[in-house]
Amino acid sequence: MPYDIHDRSLAERGQQRIDWAARHMPVLRQITEEFAAEKPFEGRRIAASLHITTETAVLVGALQAGGAEVALCASNPLSTHDDVCAALVERGIAVYAHHGEDLASYQRHMEQALAIQPQLVMDDGADLIAILHSRPEEYEVLAGIEETTSGVMRARAMAEQQVLRFPVVAVNDTPTKRYFDNRYGTGQNTIDGILRATNVLLAGATFVVAGYGWCGRGIAMRARGMGARVIVSEINATRALEAIMDGFQVLPMHEAAPLGEIFVTATGMAGVIRREHFLLMQDGAILANSGHFDVEVDTAGLRDLATGSAQLRQHMTEYELPNGRKVYLLGQGRLIGQAAAEASPAALMDLSFADQALSTRYLFEAYQRLTPGVYDVPSEIDERVAVLKLRALGVQLDTLTQEQLAYQHAWQVGTAN
């Protein structure tokens, strides 16, 4: 079995950490048992570009238990855990990734993962999907799955331009993913990454969140919970109004820039914090990104503007500006919750990856009746994942009585009846 990882001797440590994650993923464990009994992926080949974490290893284990041949590469150069890669290789998974790989290695590893001629791709950021569409004559992919906001945006753009060649399920958009992983998971791991990278005090700090989608909501909530004064920047009127109603100040970035001490982008858009904003910031401002790609903070513009730089901590680079002030970029402007922390907790990834696993089975069963386009996770999958999670937590739901069921479908009963 071919592979390209940093150090295979790390496998034992990686397996121990995977086992710990699996303890907190009861839904995916149950699905893995189903797959092992039914073998829905027997003879199927899956290429995956994902953050290679302990939780991802549990997902890959579910696919393997279902009979799939899996080739795995990274979706971010800084989110790979080398010990997890080693453990997966020991279990017969072809892994092509190592932490901190350069761009050339990152691209080569994607090509190696695609060498198995996958029938389905599982993506986080749509890099694999984009490669497949740059050379469509080389591959016969039946379907794809996209995990994150930025990747769904790319897939939808391809569909709108009528270049998407196969159906893609947008796992990111399903409620059991975005309401929990995006809000509570990203909210927690973003704060975790900032604290690990800087060890700064959040209490009393002015904390600027760019974007008030589900990720931004979670980040703002967690920052306020640790005592920060939170400002939100938005382009969407409804989301801005929601931030106001949630008790946050809303300002455009050019007004927030002189006030903020810590800045986090969570938009999926490029150039959110730019050269003109850097020059407005106070001395010592900290810049972090929680979006998938390293384009939300204009890192190239920052490097070009700076008169000097220094690596002060493992995940923190100091840039001196022409006005003499210094700003600090975390994690090279990459996804800070992955680059400096350990991503979302396993208990939340249990939901997201259960959605992915069940959507994989759905696509192999349904791809022939789906035209190229971006599709929601079927509602019955989302509902099943929620029910299984509640059951694992020991939570029971009320059920409707026969009278309530009748009322639900009646029109005769009202104020006058």
CATH class of the largest domain, named: Alpha Beta
Q: What portion of residues belong to β-strands?
A: 15-25%
* Assembly state of the chains shown: single chain
Q: Tell me the structural class.
A: alpha/beta
What is the overall pLDDT average? 96
Q: Which bin fits the share of residues in helices?
A: 40-55%
Largest sheet, in brief, is: 8 strands, mixed
How many discrete domains? 2
Strand order of the largest sheet: 9-8-7-10-11-14-13-12
End-to-end Cα distance: 72 Å
Extended strand count? 15
**Stretches where pLDDT falls below 50 for ≥5 residues?**
none
CATH superfamily of the largest domain: Adenosylhomocysteinase-like
CATH architecture field of the largest domain:
3-Layer(aba) Sandwich
Estimate the global geometry from the Cα principal axes.
globular
Return the CATH topology of the largest domain.
Rossmann fold
Family: Belongs to the adenosylhomocysteinase family.
GO cellular component, one term: cytosol
Keywords: Hydrolase, NAD, One-carbon metabolism
Binding site for substrate: 53, 124, 147, 177, 181
What labels describe this entry?
alpha/beta, Rossmann fold, eight-stranded mixed β-sheet, seven-stranded parallel β-sheet, 17 helices, NAD, Adenosylhomocysteinase
Tell me about this structure:
It is an enzyme of class 3 (hydrolase). Its EC number is 3.13.2.1. GO terms for molecular function: adenosylhomocysteinase activity. Belongs to the adenosylhomocysteinase family. The protein is α/β, with parallel strands linked by helices and 417 residues long. The chain folds into two domains: 218 residues, Adenosylhomocysteinase-like (Rossmann fold, 3-Layer(aba) Sandwich); 156 residues, Rossmann fold. 44% of the residues lie in helices and 16% in strands. Helix 1 packs across helix 4, helix 8 crosses helix 9 and helix 8 packs across helix 15. The longest helix has 24 residues. It is globular and about 65 Å long.
